[in-house]
Design goal:
The protein is of the alpha/beta class and about 525 residues long. The protein has 15 helices and 22 strands. The structure holds S-adenosyl-L-homocysteine, iron/sulfur cluster and FE3-S4 cluster. InterPro entries: Elp3/MiaA/NifB-like_rSAM, Methylthiotransferase, Methylthiotransferase_CS, Methylthiotransferase_N, Methylthiotransferase_N_sf, MiaB_methiolase, rSAM, rSAM_horseshoe.
Length: about 525
């Protein structure tokens, strides 16, 4: 069968869902048994809803349910015995953590993990949609997988994560990459066992992408990467709708886990010997806003978590708008709450911030920084910045540079604006030439490097506490780890301190890392 024939033969099949509320683009029932092109057209005309700001904003009223009854279906329990899986992860920490959940589900089915594509019986691409180049990488990888499928038709190839939530992506895979066996979204990861069953025993491509915002599924198994640091999701989704951003559409509405479920998870990690947890959310300090009948926010949650016997607690990513006094007051108590705050600013111009719908001005951001610095004088601040937003003038870009200096950010993730289909900004004229955007990015990066190097210099001669993660990537004789304020430190030391917190005296400061010497023996820090 040639590719064209295969494409025509390929059908989308709905995977029957036990959840009656799962509607929208997951509902392909009526469309079974049709030819692929017809099917694709119908699918998108009748059941798929592309990102729609007005509709998405109404979603907050929908009720979220928390499920505690997850288990792998009996007939899938041993299906992976003697088989291997590989998951490639793109994007942010939420995706990294989703990969840990999928690894948990696959392990529960008997699969083992592998790094070798040739050995794998299942390959999943957990994708990111945040910028165009993130998507291009994934399509490149999909292309690379094709010969693998030809060599080994039994291998199951799946695409999941944020790109799967986009109409254009699903459409492109259906039309151009019919050798993919399954596509599923961010709201139905827990259905991986059922989807896999369909992909294994059916002949059609399995597509299940829910536009339903997603409930919260507790008790999902996880295979965490490493035994020192752990991610803990405290909330899902984002309701901020910054005008450039795809996340509110790919991750759905904000929904918080219950405090007791989070606290129990952190306690459990502490008991297992983890040294650091990072509380995760796309908009992590909006935590609790959706918990009805509870006046409970991130500050309250952190106030409880700080009492747990785990040496380090971080959180990411917070939005300046939701950074309230209660949170600052609790963070200032210190202890295991580390004084590194990642606080994306995006631009230094109030006008650009207004059209980005960030809901704060330059002045308000600076006021917040002042408040944080007053309460936590040693706090390290880092940020995210976008350059080349539609209509950004030279003067407005200069304001970003001056804000960078005024706040004294010690590092920043910097990006060229990338239009995302379905977002409001993508409909505006992208009128800054690419050359200019690149020039701005270069100038900004130069400043970021300078400020990072200066911040590193301060550490020379100081003794810092380092959570040792393992051997350095460049030299196996050197160990590497992070300080409380998230600075990478390389030093010589015995392998026995991997996973421990040790004191290191800083000898040399580079732009992005520090070199040091271990001070006598490891010290356990509470
Ligand atoms: N929820 C976090 C992080 C979102 S994604 C926050 O609000 O800060 C991480 C970063 O990607 C953002 O902070 C932003 O700087 C960048 N980003 C998001 N959408 C983008 C786009 N369309 N083009 C370029 N950068 C983008
Ligand atoms: Fe995107 Fe962050 Fe804005 Fe949410 S708060 S829309 S995730 S940039
Ligand atoms: Fe990317 Fe989705 Fe995270 S778009 S940045 S993987 S939430």
């Amino acid at each position: 069968m040639n590719e064209q024939q295969r494409k025509e033969m390929s059908q989308i099949k709905e995977v029957s869902s036990s959840d009656k509320k799962s509607s929208g683009n997951g509902n392909l029932n009526r469309l079974k048994q049709m030819g692929s092109d017809d099917l694709i057209n119908k699918y998108f005309q009748t059941t798929y809803e592309p990102p729609n700001l007005k509709k998405a904003k109404k979603r907050r009223r929908e009720e979220v349910q928390i499920h505690y009854d997850y288990s792998v279906p009996e007939d899938m329990e041993n299906v992976g015995k003697g088989k291997k899986f590989l998951i490639r992860t793109y994007g942010c920490q939420m995706n990294e953590h989703d990969t840990e959940v999928m690894a948990g589900l696959l392990t529960d089915m008997g699969y083992e993990s592998t790094d070798d594509t040739k050995e794998a019986d299942i390959i999943l691409l957990n994708t990111c949609a945040i910028r165009e180049n993130a998507e291009n990488k994934v399509f490149g990888e999909i292309g690379h997988l094709k010969p693998l499928k030809t060599e080994n038709p039994g291998v199951i190839l799946g695409v999941c994560g944020c790109m799967s939530q986009e109409e254009s992506v699903v459409n492109r895979i259906l039309k151009k990459h019919p050798f993919i066996d399954m596509i599923f979204g961010t709201h139905n990861i827990h259905r991986l066992p059922q989807l896999l069953k369909e992909a294994m025993f059916g002949k059609e491509m399995v597509v299940e992408v829910w536009s339903k915002e997603g409930d919260i599924i507790e008790n999902l198994p996880k295979v965490r990467k490493g035994s020192t640091k752990a991610w803990v999701n405290i909330m899902y989704g984002c309701d901020k709708f910054c005008t450039y951003c795809i996340v509110p559409y790919t991750r759905g509405k904000e929904r918080s886990r219950l405090p007791q479920d989070i606290i129990q998870e952190v306690r459990h990690l502490a008991a297992q010997g983890y040294k650091e947890v990072t509380l995760l959310g796309q908009n992590v300090n909006a935590y609790g806003k959706d918990l009805k009948d509870m006046q409970y926010g991130l500050g309250d949650l952190m106030d409880e978590i700080r009492k747990i016997d785990i040496p380090r607690v971080r959180f990411t990513t917070s939005h300046p708008r939701d950074f309230d006094d209660r949170l600052i007051e609790v963070l200032a108590k210190g202890g295991n709450l580390l004084d590194h705050i990642h606080l994306p600013v995006q631009s230094g111009s109030s006008e650009v911030l207004r059209v980005m719908a960030r809901r704060y001005t330059r002045e308000e951001y600076l006021k917040l920084v002042k408040k944080i610095r007053t309460a936590m004088p040693n706090a390290t601040l880092t940020t995210d910045i976008i350059v080349g937003f539609p209509n950004e003038t030279d003067e407005q870009f200069e304001e970003t540079l001056s804000l960078m200096e005024e706040v004294g950010f010690e590092s920043a993730y910097t990006f060229i604006y990338s239009p995302r289909e379905g977002t409001p900004a993508a409909r505006w004229e992208d009128n800054i030439p690419m050359e200019k955007k690149k020039e701005r990015l270069q100038r900004l990066n130069k400043l970021v490097n300078k400020q990072s190097a200066e911040a590193m210099q301060e550490y020379k001669g100081q003794t810092v506490k380092v959570l040792v993660e393992g051997e350095s990537k460049k030299n196996p004789d050197i160990l590497a780890g992070y300080t409380e304020r998230n600075k990478l430190v390389n030093f010589a030391g015995p392998k026995s301190v991997i996973g421990e917190i040790v004191e290191v005296k800083i000898i040399e400061a580079k732009t992005w890392s520090l070199d040091g010497e271990m001070v006598e023996k490891a010290v356990e820090v509470k």
